[in-house]
Write a structure and sequence with these properties.
Length: 217
């Protein structure tokens, strides 16, 4: 499985988070434009830097000139994160972790959460922001867990129905239309949480530190 990390120009994760996923075979680090500045601060070397290059610093350009591949993309009908995602899909990556995609600008954060859904059917996609790990799902799945782990689940329309097993507050063909109903801070009561998601996609948010500590990836 060909995995990569995209580091964007928002608030970066801790370096230890990136190093953890690199050890989990996310071997390629791709910086979306100004994400290279965060890489420089963390003493990380990008394999690829892609975007319209309006946010990357001159210092980052000089530092990575000989070590990283620069791919300027000037089109303005998609964001630098989208440009990076299109690149990884075109180059055969099957799993991507988005980082640095949240921060001070709420519009960018909302846009990037939407991008997770937009590219869901094209590549395995997940996101780390602050202490949270977010991943979209559909269909039937089993997630390894432990008693007391917090799960938050979010849907988007009235067509998507969710059934769960192993959660303290069970979902029985529940709909979670955005802005009307959600399952925030649900709690696992089992070593396995089962979800059956029909007619759509939901987002599941968990604590990334807890997942790393308990080897749940």
């Amino acid at each position: 499985m060909n995995k990569c990390i995209i580091l964007a120009h928002g608030k970066p994760p801790r370096k230890s988070i990136i190093k953890y996923f690199q050890k989990r075979d996310y071997n390629t680090l791709i910086c979306a434009d100004g994400g290279a500045n965060s890489a420089l601060k963390m003493n990380l070397v990008p394999d690829v830097i892609i975007g319209d290059m309006d946010s990357i610093s001159n210092e980052s350009k000089r530092k990575f000139k000989k070590t990283s591949r620069f791919i300027p993309v000037s089109r303005q009908n998609d964001t630098d994160v989208e440009k990076s995602l299109k690149y990884v899909i075109e180059n055969g990556y099957t799993e991507v972790l988005l980082t640095g995609v949240t921060g001070n600008r709420l519009d960018h954060t909302i846009c990037n959460l939407g991008i997770v859904l937009k590219f869901f059917h094209q590549i395995g996609i997940s996101l780390v922001a602050e202490d949270s790990y977010l991943k979209p799902y559909n269909g039937y799945l089993k997630l390894r867990s432990f008693r007391g782990e917090t799960f938050s689940l979010y849907g988007f329309d009235k067509k998507t129905k969710i059934k769960s097993k192993g959660l303290k507050y069970p979902l029985k063909d529940v709909i979670l239309p955005f802005g009307e109903k959600e399952s925030t801070s649900n709690v696992s009561i089992s070593s396995v949480v089962e979800l059956n998601i029909r007619n759509g996609v939901i987002l599941v948010v968990r604590d990334v530190n807890t997942m790393i500590k308990n080897d749940l990836f």
